[in-house]
Amino acid sequence: MDRAHDRSHAAPVRGTGAGHVRPRRRGGRASPRRCPPVPTGHRALVIGAEAFSKFQNPADRSTGVLFADGAGAVVVGPAAEGSGILCSTQGTDGSLADIVGIRAGGSAEPTSEHTVSEGGHYLHMNGKAVAAYFHDVFPRIVETLVQLSGLPLTQIDLVVPHQANPRMLRTLSRGLDISPAQLVVTADTFGNTGAASIPMALYVARAEGRLKPESTVLHAAVGAGMTWAGTVQRWL
Prior knowledge:
It is built from six helices and ten strands, in the order E-E-E-H-E-E-E-H-E-H-E-H-H-H-E-E.
């Protein structure tokens, strides 16, 4: 079994948005697969929720100051060509499975007295390794989506990323010429809420009047596993 499926992981990547899906990219390779057609009028409620507080080690400041509980949801449904999800990309690297996550409690290391006494059920993170991976992958997600969508960043209204670390997001965005007006950052208010972070950021952007019908939105997410994904969508 691939190690990426052998552990309990933080911040799983969730798809968000609605609409037509063009060919995806998996691990850097283009895939001709399409999602099966959705019957007209059908909708799906996609929920991302985390309860990191149950797994945080109170003595570990590397995770305690970043991760937080949260929940968010989006409604996904069919959309006309040119609306909804315009393109997507995703990938994973199981060789880095151990740099962030929960070591014990899964099939690789079942719960025992030893795993409990050794703190194996706490969330752990190698902050330097995770930051290095994020700095490498995040720009590549954005560049791939720009290429797949055919839209330059100047035609992207909002960039709504996974809310890993607010300072890191702002630094990387400046390097990519993503303006503060385009970037949505909520991690300095809510923390890193993992799978809930993009739905929560969408809610904030909409409440602030930044997310409107026909807005073109780019998502980029990097999570444990290590996994990554991104989409460009035209909001309905």
